[in-house]
Amino acid sequence: MGCPRCHSLMVQETFVDWESDTGALYFTGWRCITCGDIVDPLIVQNRIARPEPAHGRARSKKAGIVIS
């Protein structure tokens, strides 16, 4: 599987959510070995529901400097 952020290798891992209020403390997901991005089924659902802007990340001007 390729990382959606940096296109590097991702490995499957089991993660622990110590602050879960649903009782599901362990979940399986994918972690990028290069950038550390984590993807699991819930993250995929949220990214589909709220995709990033079509023209890349939003930019803001601060004191005449464009921050991207």
Give a short summary of the structure:
This protein has one helix at residues 41-49; strands at 10-16, 26-32, 38-39, 60-62, 65-67. By secondary structure, it is α+β, with helices and mostly antiparallel strands. The mean pLDDT is 81.
Describe the structure in your own words.
By secondary structure, the protein is α+β, with helices and mostly antiparallel strands. The protein has a domain at 10-56. The protein is built from one helix and five strands.
Let me know the number of strands.
Answer: 5
What's the shape? flat
Strand order in the sheet with the most strands: 1-2-3
Instruction: Report low-confidence residues grouped into runs of 5 or more.
Output: none
Main sheet makeup:
3 strands, antiparallel
Instruction: Give the fraction of residues assigned to helices.
Output: 10-25%
Instruction: List the secondary-structure elements in sequence, H or E.
Output: EEEHEE
Proportion of residues in β-strands: 25-35%
Overall pLDDT score: 81
Tell me the number of helical segments per DSSP (H or I, 4 or more residues long): 1
Radius of gyration: 16 Å
**Main structural class:** alpha+beta
Q: Terminal Cα separation, in Å?
A: 27 Å
Write the layout of secondary structure elements.
Blueprint: E1 10-16, E2 26-32, E3 38-39, H1 41-49, E4 60-62, E5 65-67
Antiparallel strand pairs: 1-2, 2-3, 4-5
